[in-house]
């Protein structure tokens, strides 16, 4: 759930960044107002009606209906930016991304309320998760406002934000400190054995149905925190909580935060490579660039605008739901295998997963970012009989990560060398 929320806002941000501010199709203002009101009414009324009907059906239909509405939110948001001129209106101003993301949030919050009826505390969780991202944007805008720049600016800001922001996140989240007692003693002892330092441990209150989670927040020990949802602590015994803790220790010991950051940093390169291919296609279709310019000034240019929006949206969703999701699942599996190697027994984790699946009704559901709970149970039992899989999985994961990074860097370097001047001319035609 939290992964999906966070990635949805990432996609909304990149749509804002990628859709040109020159987009704003010329139609009658009255027609635009009518279409805008119709869009909002359609989204709200269909959400209320369909979500209620889907809720009375089976779990699978409920899941897919929610995803369809999420897709509609991206489509409508893209059309708000382009067709209704939101990007063109906001882009001349500093900090314009914040009202744009807030506008996307009005779609997103309606979906969450209609399908999950989350309490307000959940949106404090969501705000905390996107806070580092918002701080990074804010600092970039401030430096731009004062005309300040320096080498490696983005990466230095990114390093500072991801290192220090967990302290602010914990202040925003509706958490309470894990009280002294047997559980805290078990956690302290295990973390000492793992040579891991965390600042403190926290409990998330009940925030809505199916909200059962645990994790580690932060990259560096002075600002690194362990948290459990209250539901986890209510249904798990000490042995099962130890299994969950060993899994989280696996993320830390294997430096998964760094690997996820590397994958995320390939996203703009991936987009650039795909866009180069897009431009290359137009270069083949239009040998004469004047013909391309004439086409984009003609009556069919609107279809190009729509195609470009769909192209950017498809790229963003494909990256996160295919590429990023693959590495997420692989890292989750490595953390499971690490816990297995430390505990020498799959039962603490498999028992915990089974309880989670039973209470949430998601035991047999597939997961795009973690593997399904039953898949993880079966694999852990299989890996217990094949200890060689633990090292083999880690080697395969790192090789594929390296291959993905190198492939993107080589392709973008190739296209840049091949014809940077030609691509620059085409870009000026597209985005005058």
From TrEMBL:
UniProt-listed InterPro entries: HtpX_protease, Peptidase_M48
Cofactors, names only: Zn(2+)
GO molecular function annotation: metal ion binding; metalloendopeptidase activity
Highest taxon in the source lineage: Bacteria
Name under which the protein is recorded: Peptidase M48 domain-containing protein
Keyword annotations from UniProtKB, A to Z: Cell membrane, Hydrolase, Membrane, Metal-binding, Metalloprotease, Protease, Transmembrane, Transmembrane helix, Zinc
Domain Peptidase M48 as annotated: residue spans: 218-366
Cofactor details (free text): Binds 1 zinc ion per subunit.
GO terms of biological process kind: proteolysis
Transmembrane segments: 34-51, 63-86, 92-110, 122-139, 151-170, 258-286, 306-328, 401-420
Family statement: Belongs to the peptidase M48 family.
């Amino acid at each position: 759930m939290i992964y999906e929320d966070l990635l949805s806002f990432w996609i909304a941000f990149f749509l804002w960044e990628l859709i040109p501010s020159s987009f704003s199709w010329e139609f009658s203002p009255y027609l635009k107002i009518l279409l805008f009101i119709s869009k909002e009414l359609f989204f709200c009324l269909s959400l209320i009606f369909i979500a209620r009907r889907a809720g009375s059906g089976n779990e699978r239909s409920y899941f897919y209906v929610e995803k369809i509405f999420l897709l509609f939110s991206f489509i409508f948001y893209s059309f708000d930016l382009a067709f209704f001129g939101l990007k063109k209106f906001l882009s001349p101003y500093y900090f314009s991304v914040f009202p744009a993301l807030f506008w996307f949030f009005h779609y997103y919050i309606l979906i969450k309320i209609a399908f999950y009826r989350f309490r307000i505390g959940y949106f404090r969780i969501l705000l905390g998760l996107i806070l580092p991202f918002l701080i990074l944007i804010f600092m970039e805008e401030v430096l731009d406002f004062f005309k300040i720049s320096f080498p490696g600016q983005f990466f230095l800001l990114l390093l500072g934000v991801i290192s220090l922001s967990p302290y602010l996140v914990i202040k925003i989240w509706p958490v309470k400190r894990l009280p002294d007692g047997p559980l805290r003693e078990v956690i302290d002892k295990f973390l000492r054995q793992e040579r891991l330092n965390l600042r403190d441990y926290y409990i998330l209150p009940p925030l809505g149905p199916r909200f059962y989670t645990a994790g580690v927040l932060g990259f560096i020990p002075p600002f690194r925190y362990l948290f459990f949802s209250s539901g986890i602590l209510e249904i798990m015994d000490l042995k099962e909580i130890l299994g969950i803790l060993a899994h989280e220790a696996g993320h830390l010991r294997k430096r998964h935060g760094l690997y996820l950051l590397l994958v995320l940093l390939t996203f703009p390169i991936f987009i650039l490579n795909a866009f180069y291919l897009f431009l290359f296609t137009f270069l083949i279709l239009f040998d004469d660039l004047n013909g391309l310019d004439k086409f984009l000034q003609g009556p069919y240019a609107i279809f190009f605008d729509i195609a470009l929006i769909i192209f950017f949206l498809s790229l963003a969703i494909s990256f996160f739901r295919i590429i990023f999701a693959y590495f997420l699942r692989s890292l989750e599996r490595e953390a499971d295998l690490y816990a297995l190697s430390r505990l020498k027994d799959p039962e603490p984790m498999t028992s915990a997963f089974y309880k989670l699946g039973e209470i949430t009704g998601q035991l047999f559901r597939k997961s795009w970012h973690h593997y399904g709970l039953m898949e993880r149970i079966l694999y852990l039992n299989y890996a217990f009989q094949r200890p060689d899989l633990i090292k083999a999985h880690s080697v395969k994961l790192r090789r594929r990560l390296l291959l993905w990074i190198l492939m993107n860097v080589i392709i973008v370097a190739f296209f840049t060398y091949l014809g940077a001047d030609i691509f620059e001319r085409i870009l000026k035609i597209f985005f005058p």
